User: What shape does this take?
Amino acid sequence: MTIISEPFSLEHVDINSDNFGDDGHLRAGLKLNHLRMIVAIEDSGQISAAAEVLNISQPAASRMLSDLESIVKAPLYERVARGVVLTTFGQALARRARKILLELREASREIGELKSGKGGSVFIGAVTAPAMSLVVPAINTVRKTFPGIEVNIQVETSNVLARELLAARHDFIISRIPDDLNPRLFEVREIGIERACLIVRSDHPLLKKSKPSSLTEIRDYDWVFQPPGTLLRRTIEDIFLSRAVQLPENVVNTSSLLLTCAMICATDAIAPVAIDVAQFLASQSSNASDVRILPIDFEINVKPYSMITVRERALPPSARLLYDLILEESIRQAEGGLG
Assistant: This one.
C-alpha cells in the first residue's frame, strides 16, 4: 500500500489517456460513497466485507462498483479465487480516494477544534512497552491540561500498526517499520529500546531455584508466544537458535495480553512480554495478575522503537501536542536512566 504526496485530483486515469481531466467524473456522478467503496475493496479484498463497511447489501455494493466503472470508464477490479483484487486503475483510484477521505476527516476535526476553541481527537497506535511507559504518562498530562482532547489508542504489533498508519487510521504510531514496507514512506525518530523478560505464575517450580534459569531448563515447558513473525517472537527464537537450543514445541500463539495472563496463571507455561508490562502485572494484587518475572541467565533486548509518521503528512494540532509530550517523556526517562 502506498500513500502519494502529489496534489489530489478527483479525476481518474482514462483507459485511452495517461492524463487527468478536469471535473468530468464529478459531473458523471462520482460520490464520496464511491471513494469509500474502492478503499474498502482494497482493504478487504471482498465485496461482501466492503458492503459491511458501508452498511449496504452485497448486491448494492456490486451495483455501486459497476456504476463507478461506468463513471471512470475503466475496469477497477478482477475476481479471484478468494474475492477480488484491484486493477492498476482501481489501485490508482484507491490511492487518491484514501487521501481525499483523510483530508475530509481532518477538515471535520479541525472545524470541531475551531468551534470549541480547544480539544479535538488524536488517533495513535503503539506496541505494548511504550504504550505503558510513555503514552500513559503523556495522556495523564493531556487530560489535566487539555481535558477536551479525546485520545484513541490501538495497542498492536508493528506489522499491524504500520499498515494502519498508511491507511490514515492513525496520526502517528510508536512502533517499528516492518521489513516488507518501504521506509521512505515514513518519518522516523528513534526513542527507546524495548527490554523484555519471561513471566510465570507466582508458585511456578522454576521460581524455587536458587540460580537464574537457562534456556535448556525452560525449553521443555509450555510457552505462550505472540503470533509467528512478530518481533518479540522472532527475538526469542533467535536467542534459542544462537545458543543451539531446540525451539520450544508446546506453544500457544496469541496476541492477547489478557489471554496470555490467563494461561500463565492457570498453568506452568512461560511467556515473553515487555518488561514494563511484566513489572506492572507483578505489582498488582489481583489473582488475574498473579505473575512474576522469571530470573534468567540471558537478556532479551528487542529492536528499538520509534515515533513514526507518514512522510509529508502534517499532524493536526491536537496530535502534535500529544506527539511532543510523548517525545518529552521519552527524553526524561532516558536522562533518568529508565529508557
In short: The chain is about 45% helix and 20% strand.
